[in-house]
Structures are given as C-alpha cells and as structure tokens.
Write a structure and sequence with these properties.
- The chain has one domain: Four Helix Bundle (Hemerythrin (Met), subunit A).
- The radius of gyration is 17 Å and the shape is globular.
- The longest helix has 34 residues.
- Helix 2 packs antiparallel against helix 3, helix 3 runs antiparallel to helix 4 and helix 6 runs antiparallel to helix 8.
- It is built from 8 helices and no strands.
- The mean pLDDT is 86.
- By secondary structure, the chain is an all-alpha fold.
Length: 191
C-alpha cells in the first residue's frame, strides 16, 4: 500500500485535490480566468494519471479508489461554488451531484460487501470530461463578461450562450449514459 502511494499515477491523482483547492480559491476571488486554467489542469491530471498507470504498469487498488474520489470531489466542489455564485442552474447541480452520490454509494457498497472496486470506465471518463468542459465554458463566459480574457466573446455573447446550452445538453446526455453504464456494471457485480 505504501509503495502504491508513491506511484506516479497515484501522486497525480492526489495532486488533483491540491489543484482543486487552488481552483476554488480563484473562483471565490472572482478570478475566473485563473479558475478556468486550473479546471483545465484538473482534467489534464485526470487524463495523465490513467495514462501513467497503464504505461508504467502501476494500476493499483489504491489508484482505483483515489481516481474516482478525486473526480467526484472536483466536480461536486466546483458545481457548488458556481451555484453559490449563481453561475450555474440549480437543476444542473442537483443532477450532477446526484449522479456522483449514486456512483459513490454503489462503489462503497461493492467495496464493503463484495470487496470489489469498479474502475472508472470510458463512458464515465467522458462524462466527467464533458461536465468539466461545461463548467469551464460557464467560467469562460463569466470571465469574458468581466473582461478578464479580452472582449471577443463579450461581443459574441449569443455564440457563447449557445455553446453553454449545447454543453449543458451534452452533459445531461453523458450523465445519463454514465449512470446507466455504472448501474449495469453494479448489478452484474451484485449477482
């Protein structure tokens, strides 16, 4: 277990908690440009931990637990901060948090009752990426309106709003697909 903690992939997963803290700091300081940059870093770290785990043959039970917890902590924390700042709709936050709560509860059940840890799958990774991209575009739109990134998107606010609506729709589709995929895997492992 101690050796697994020092795997590069697991260190990258753990770094996501630090990146999340910095992201929240910038969002609460209304520095949306830097908040957006750190959201990108969080999701790049999510891609890198899986890459290094496979490339270095460091797939571990610890990593299977840290990675999804870091994903869920990042998504839930960021959507709640943005909700408090009235930047994202409440219904989106409820659906996003509910998805993660269901997956976390199912994962804890399987871990305690069956000693099984379900790895994140491709559908779940894509869902987290799309949700993150949606949050990034929300933050990007606010940064544009506050003239933190120049005024191109401010002058093209209809395009920015359309992009956000498309990303919201894609997020909901991916949330449904990932939850369905997870529930199917959960039921297969319960038998």
């Amino acid at each position: 277990m101690r050796q697994e903690l020092l795997y590069i992939s697991n260190l990258i997963s753990l770094s996501r908690f630090l990146l999340l803290g910095v992201t929240v700091y910038f969002l609460l300081a209304y520095n949306y440009l830097m908040g957006g940059v750190f959201i990108i870093l969080i999701w790049v770290s999510d891609l890198l931990d899986g890459y290094f785990a496979r490339a270095r043959n460091e797939i571990s039970e610890l990593g299977k637990k840290i990675d999804p917890i870091a994903d869920k902590a990042s998504v839930i924390t960021i959507v709640i901060v943005l909700l408090v700042q009235e930047l994202v709709p409440l219904w989106f936050v409820i659906i996003t948090v509910l998805r993660d709560a269901i997956i976390l509860t199912g994962g804890l059940y399987l871990s305690s009752k069956k000693n099984i840890v379900l790895q994140s799958n491709l559908v779940g990774k894509i869902a987290v990426f799309v949700i993150g991209l949606t949050l990034f575009f929300y933050i990007f739109g606010v940064a544009a309106s506050k003239n933190q990134i120049g005024n191109f998107f401010l002058y093209h606010s209809e395009f920015t709003e359309l992009l956000i609506q498309v990303m919201l729709f894609l997020s909901i589709v991916m949330i449904i697909l990932s939850l369905t995929s997870y529930l199917r895997r959960f039921l297969q492992n319960i038998k």
